[in-house]
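Annotated sample (chain length 528).
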Amino acid sequence: MKQNFIIFIILLLTSCVQKKISNIVVFEHIEDYKIPLTKKGKSLPYAVDFHEFDTAKILSVYYNYPEIVSYNLETEKIIERISINYFSFTKLLAFNYHNSDSIFLIFNAAYNKNYSHDSTILMINSSGEIKDNISLKGAPVWCSENPVFKRDSVAFTTLFLNDFFYKKDKLFFHLLNYTSKEPGDVGFLKNKFPLGGHIDIKDKKFTEHDISYPYFEDNRYYQNATHPYTCFTHNNTIIYAFRHTGNLIEYDFENRKRTMHYVKSSLVDSIKPDTIILDNNYGAVYQQLYYNSYEQKYIRIVKLQVDKKASPYLKNHPKFSLMLLDTNFNVLGECIFPEGFSFFPMLFTKEGIIIRNIEKNTKDSIVFSLFKLNTIKGTKKQLLKHVNFQPKNIPKETGIEAYLEKKHYLNKEKMVVILLPINRSCLPCVNYVCKYYSDSINILKENNVFLILNSSNKESISLLLEENNISENLPNLLFDENNDYLNYIEGFFNPKVIFVKNNEIVEEKIYEPNDLYFLHDEISDFIK
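Output written by the structure step:
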């Protein structure tokens, strides 16, 4: 009798857990903004910034061309164009439009063969006049004023360009650490590298933050802490967030103090952060962190785990969760991020959040949509039902061999295929791969290294090739405008490199942004 009672209690508790009431975030669509592309800006925005002046919503965009274009979202008209052609041989990394007299720019002023950064920060006004050249002396960044280059250090992150901001007379940015050391090595553990810092504009002094790579928590380290996500908080402090933990570090940069906030997605069971090299293409990871100062709420994006046994279509269309947090970092609700929209960038206004509407983009315009986030009561089961969706019809032959055989490019003793989804990958990744291909073009042609560009917009392909001085008629350059293959490969959001020997694939590798540093050496070692 007692045993049956215990079983009844367990079943009752299990039922209560399954039916636990929680808040589900709901997207309420308000309106769309259609932004016309300029003739010289036919590609997607490389970097954007958003600000409100006198109730007008102003979106400033950099299109990988030496000009910042500002739009009034309400009128959908260009209101300002700022020439930023300060260097003839470089591209802008990021910018922050604080006001018309204080616009901050980060440039890579030069490249060397290893693609390190000679970095420059300029402050200009809306007329394009340089007001200040901000020194990086003392910062662990490769630049002319700090010329000690080490391979295991170095550079501004180009991954999340909205994490560069100006507050309280200080310019905040995080740093990206390239390292050749393996997790667990003594050199890896000793190689402390600051993940962020700030420059005081008045005294020209750089101060590194006490958040370092590798990052430790509970006697474990996170090898991918090279990708911090940061945002300014309601307390005028900085939040550091990492991919493999939901926990957030609040950093008081004035008093150099850290406070841990424990946060967890209801849709992620666990993420192993130890010495295992994580499979980011399938595993769950925490991503962007935003603070909405209008509503005093935080938003955290989470990439959900993908079933390895699922169809190629499902594996290449991962689901993302949106977590809504209050200023005490309690989870107010969660939802599956709607498909057809991009959560990078995410812009905030008094009326709601603005995100890019990918499905409504055309060759002549980019569409941004304004949403209001509401919460409704529901159960975890109701939330989870939105995670699964049915795959589309998949062609029978979707392998790289079938694709290349159809194009008559197979039957090579050694061959390397670089798959680049230019509208899906991060733009710094796209530019990195194209620059590598341009710089090494003669060697690649002689050694059967193919580049396949995926985009349904032929104009964006042509513009990308023109910017990198690549001819469209190269025999080793292929185009996949109809998504014949790239929709079904694993890791659709990142460049993928396939190594083929005697008509057999010997290795397939998804290149995360920090892995691209080794792209040249790995291809060279294979084809030699």
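Annotation: The chain is about 15% helix and 40% strand.
Annotation: The first helix runs from residue 2 to 18.
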